[in-house]
Design goal:
By secondary structure, the protein is an alpha/beta fold. It folds into 3 domains: about 80 residues, Arc Repressor Mutant, subunit A (Orthogonal Bundle); about 110 residues, 3-Layer(aba) Sandwich (D-Maltodextrin-Binding Protein, domain 2); about 100 residues, 3-Layer(aba) Sandwich (D-Maltodextrin-Binding Protein, domain 2). The chain is built from 11 helices and 12 strands. The strands form 4 sheets. Strands 4-3-5-12-6 form a 5-stranded mixed beta sheet. It comes from Amycolatopsis acididurans.
Amino acid sequence: MVRRNPVSLASLDLNLLVFLRELLRERNVTRAGARVGVSQPAASAALSRLRRHFDDELLVRSRGGFVLSPLAVQLAGQIEPVCRGVERLFATGAEFRPADAEREFTLLTPDYVLATFGERLSTALYAAAPKVRLHIEVVKQRLPTDAAEVLRRIDGIISAPTANFGAAGIRSLELFRDRWVCVVSADNPVGDRLEPADLERLPWVVPHHPDGEYPASSPLTPLMARLTVRPRVAVRVDSYHATAYFVAGTDRVAIMQGRLAALLADRADLRVLDCPGEPPPIVETLWWHEKNTDDEGHRWFRTVTAAAAHEPAISAVYAAHSQN
């Protein structure tokens, strides 16, 4: 357990705080040392000091490398807001200058969003702020249910609106809108217009749903309600971007985002069709905690992200695809 005795801030080496954050992220002494710019011996010495302080191993050797001890897992959930608070404290009164900034921004997002404008965001950030670091966490299966708590320790989540984002203290900015489309193999005998009956008959490729079904919170729920039988799921995959890989050359169908499908325009083995039932639009939104609203650096990050999402080249490709 964490020591309960009071600890004087003056007795602490705050360099250990920086090293501890990287150690918990990397789960590797050498990589953590490289992230903070210290040698292997210095990194090992820092780990020894941390182990003495917490009276815990922190990193435990396992068959595949190292894993965090139970205490280290607890610390990993605490250290990010602590470090961000310290960074904000020492940045108070200082103007945020992107060209000189060395701040790290953490973003949680589905791989679909990365496919549509992730590269453009990376390029824009690098051009304006080459020293700024970007930490991208890709959504695994489902978004966190405690969105407000997660947003206290990271800079933002990109997602369509759900009930989880209705909590107090969460702010938002619409990035772009999209629509649902159906993808089938080019040699699939279905016509150019799908009907609900086709969706009932064809096997499905379903992303990010471990039980093979669309949950009640899915934006496709109105469409699912129109089907008289449950869709037969042939493939479940934890990736939007990989969905199309399991459609070509089969009789399967996948429902996916239009902007993502537009990236498949040069594939002759796939067809993109309108989705029956007119499901509601997809409204991809950047969500953040209100504590970051007036932060000058965070405001700059939000502006760059929004500009990358609205890049005219993306809209042009999507518009051309929508007209085909």
